[in-house]
Amino acid sequence: MSNSNKSSTNSITSSAKPYEEVHFVDTTLSVWNYSLFSEQDIHLFQSGQHTNMYELLGNKQISVLDKQGTYFAVWAPNATYVSVIGYFNKWDTQAHPLKVRLDSSGIWEGFIPNVLAGEAYKYHIHGFEGLKLDKGDPYAHLWEKRPYTASIAWGTFYEWNDADWMKKRHAHNALHAPWSVYEVHLASWMRPDPSDEESYYTYREIAERLVPYVQQMGFTHVELMPVMEHPFDGSWGYQGTGYFAPTSRFGSPQDFAYLVEQFHLAGIGVVLDWVPSHFPYDAHGLFLFDGTHTYEYADMRKGFHPDWNSYIFNYKRGEVKSFLLSSAHFWMDRFHIDGLRVDAVSSMLRLDYSRNEGEWEPNEFGGNGNLEAISFIKDLNITLYKDFPDTQTIAEEATDWPGISKPIYMDGLGFGMKWMMGWMHDTLRYFKRDPIHRSFHQDELSFSMMYFYDENFMLPLSHDEVVHGKSPMLYKMTGDEWQKFANLRLLYTYMFTHPGGKLLFMGNEFAANQEWNYKSALPWNLIDFVSHGGMKYCVQQLNELYKSNPAFYEMQFEPGGFEWVDLSNREAGVIVYKRIGKKKNQDILVILNMTPVVRMDWKVQTHSSKAKWKELFNSDQKEFWGTGDVLNPAITCKKLSKQSDSNTIELNVHLPALAAVVIG
Known about the structure:
It is a single chain. By secondary structure, this protein is α/β, with parallel strands linked by helices. The protein has a domain at 559-663: Sandwich (Immunoglobulin-like). The chain starts with 38 loop residues before the first helix and ends with a strand.
């Protein structure tokens, strides 16, 4: 990965403001003494309590004594010399040295006249034992497009037009609201040239295409895989160097703001993948920032991640904690983000994560928990929900660590939701089985409700399940082509009617027939086929079913919102459960036929005061590429007891093969 100081005037694409031509500054103008910091800022920064360091560190285009220029500030506590280098001074390491503050904060700062927005720059650092380094700005809001690695002087100001959304989004983002999330990798969702990995749409061009599509499909939220600046496309954004910058691959920060705004104007929430767990070793990035382990643990038993060949943040260090808290707040504050999906929480919590015996050191109490990371996560959720109470944090956490989504006062970690990885693994394992064997493994489906109320769960069918030889969703299903599609429609219906939030990775909605490849676009030509187009329409209708029936979401995290009705028909492979709303007669029954056998006049007994029932959804509809042969135009309902106080009823329902019927 390049550490070049090269730049070019077309290294970003921005329709908000053109990248200014390179020019040279009069180097006889020295750095002026100037500071934005108060004593309180320094105290909060060092104690790990500052959540707005992006307003102080980095570059700021300001006027000092009527002179336009840029204020630079960087934390490099073990440096002996720091200067700003760029085209404006011909990368002269002696031209513009910064001054270190005298308060032992380790912050170097200064104002350079005539350096304006659009200038590429780095910090030249003399570090530990005389090591000389050229580093990008950890707090920069814009970076050069890779393979170039300089930061760019730039701000985030944007004239927002989503005031109505911001005022009302508390209802949209609440835990008792529907959460149907479409997970997207911006580069590969759609490309101008589908097979060219260097072919990108801009943020604004993506908005023209993606926003109406997500709206048409009926998803309530979109989750963007990491947009933080990152040097290597193959990391999918999970190896970041710019924690305060949307990637310049698609444009400027203002262009990214426009994309978020368009989602909001369409009534769609925006969740970002955010990675506070690890960072790469690129020479221009955070690793060995001032020649010492500045951002990462010095002890590699804690500081190096063996799975991802990257480095782990030192959560014990106040300045690092403030860096991460500020990054999280930055996206909520400057870009109106509705939620953060926090990546790799399991690896943060456990000192022994992916380590063998002898490769890790227990904490002070002899346990395997990273106490500093736990404290950071709690502070993260406390401050985010205090400052942005109408947003959510979602943990990607794959272990049985207790209380991930429980409040801090209940000894939890304070996340709003947690990915339900156990549900995903059990469900996919079940649907891979030949229907003749499913009766012996029904517990793989029913087990989810044994522990569902331990957390606020989101059901994920994410990017991780359709890469690295795992096969696309369609080919995880058993049977011939028709049965594979029928099984996948059945699985999706089960997912959308199961309690909890939902997440579906791009391409899953139309049954992509190949694994996801970040280098190319999704195979959009498939939706012209009736089978794939039918799957897409099925998911669209499932979103409508989910959002239009409060029984599916009002009590999605409460025991009163779900009830097993029939788990006794293992041999027949028929499973029945009820979703319950807060109001009377909102009950909905979900009937899953897990076998390729049509079952006419199937009897369902349940307790309900509801006398009239109708079919709300049938996954075997012709429009979905089903047979359309077994529907329920009229559902008979009879009371089983003559006693007036009895609410036991029996419903007569026709069940298509490998299909779900939803009645209410």
